[in-house]
Design a protein that fits this description.
The protein is an all-alpha fold. The protein has a single domain, classed as Up-down Bundle (Growth Hormone, Chain: A). Helices cover 82% and strands 0% of the residues. It contains 20 helices and no strands.
Length: 397
């Protein structure tokens, strides 16, 4: 029965959470990893940018694979890859081996991509958006707590303890998925190549690109923060890994609140208004932070405080935007989810590099906030365009 019954919502929440955990739990340890391997910080930071780049490629493949073979076998394969790669990171003797296995860890991104597709398999656009908001609200606890837990594990047991935890979590999720996640894709594609031939249809649809732009630049602000905050927090403000992890959790606190408010407000005032309001908030916060830095008031609070608004705005926007991008062509929900996810992490890899450069200049925290202002502005523009086009087609509300 496990192979045929739909998964519980909690299973999808945990799968999505593990995808996020793997990205940011070890961030407070980057400097110590560099010191342990006697490697440059810039090289070690490839564990973020390189991870995102490989994730983007895997998502392009995983989406069509799940449309062809089903969500269940692809998810089991992705979790197996993640677990083995985490074991490799745990025992890595040098930075080269560590980075190699770290890239393979990106297989866990299937948890996020396929969970979205599973929700869309079972529900229409509005209900899918609501459930994605619930998943987002619950899984936001992962990035909220992960940097704190990673920082504490580093200080008490060393940075390798984080990867031991990844091994344990990977094994637990393999058991859970095998027992609970039934197949939801009952309209399989005929051939793998047919799925890639469907991409031009998505590429030609301006609505797909508008939704993608809204998602890519929304999440881009989050990636910019992850890429730049550790350096600013440690060098400019002397924060320890545990305290830095707590500060980095601020964006996730806002994201969790935003997902909760989306579920409460969208039925009353409409998903379109909620999404646009979210993008405005995500712009106002970092813009105010830049103003405070310019006035000479730059400190820990003016760095992490404005990021709450970015997380809040993302929580108000992403449930509807993710449902929208998969509803452009419901038959290709897996491909659309994988392709939009690939574009998101590819954009994240670029923005992470830009943020790393910005915080290395004399601007520091101010430079980081300026990068986030730019991503929030572009996301607002794309979201407004997507809402208008979707409304013309009779979608949203």
């Amino acid at each position: 029965m496990a192979e045929r019954t739909p998964p519980r919502l909690m299973t999808l929440i945990l799968l999505t959470s593990l995808s996020v955990l793997s990205l940011n739990m070890f961030l407070p340890s980057l400097s110590r990893i560099a010191a342990d391997f006697e490697a440059d910080y810039a090289l070690v930071s490839l564990s973020i940018g390189g991870y995102l780049a490989v994730s983007s490629v895997l998502q392009i493949i995983m989406g069509p694979l799940s449309d062809l073979y089903g969500r269940r076998p692809v998810m089991l394969g992705a979790l197996s890859l993640f677990t083995l790669a985490s074991l490799g990171c745990l025992f890595a003797p040098n930075i080269t081996v560590f980075l190699g296995f770290r890239m393979l860890q990106s297989g866990v991104i299937g948890g996020m991509v396929l969970s979205r597709a599973i929700v869309r398999d079972m529900h229409g656009q509005k209900e899918a958006a609501r459930l994605l908001g619930v998943i987002g609200m619950a899984m936001a606890l992962a990035p909220l707590l992960a940097p704190v837990l990673g920082g504490v594990l580093d200080e008490v047991f060393g940075w390798r303890a984080t990867f031991l935890l990844f091994v344990v979590l990977g094994l637990c999720m393999l058991v859970l998925v095998f027992a609970d996640l039934g197949e939801t894709n009952h309209n399989r594609a005929a051939r793998f190549t047919d799925q890639f031939r469907s991409y031009p249809a998505l590429f030609r649809d301006r609505l797909f690109w508008a939704w993608c732009g809204g998602i890519v630049f929304s999440v881009g602000g989050f990636y910019a923060f992850l890429g730049g905050a550790p350096k600013v927090g440690e060098e400019a403000f002397g924060l320890s890994p545990a305290v830095l992890g707590l500060g980095m959790g601020s964006i996730s606190a806002g994201f969790m609140l935003g997902n909760y408010l989306y579920g409460r407000l969208s039925p009353r005032v409409g998903g379109a208004r909620v999404m646009v309001a979210g993008r405005v908030l995500a712009l106002i916060g970092p813009l105010a932070g830049v103003g405070l830095f310019v006035m000479g008031l730059g400190n820990v609070w003016t760095l992490f405080g404005p990021i709450l608004f970015v997380g809040l705005g993302n929580g108000l926007t992403l449930p509807g935007a993710n449902a929208g991008v998969m509803s452009v062509s419901p038959r290709l929900a897996g491909s659309a989810s994988g392709l939009s996810g690939a574009l998101t992490v590819a954009g994240g890899a670029v923005v992470t590099g830009i943020a790393g450069w910005a915080v290395s200049t004399r601007l520091g925290g101010e430079g980081l906030l300026l990068v986030i202002v730019a991503t929030s502005s572009l996301s607002l523009l794309c979201t407004v365009l997507a809402v208008r086009m979707e409304t013309r087609r009779g979608g949203l509300d």
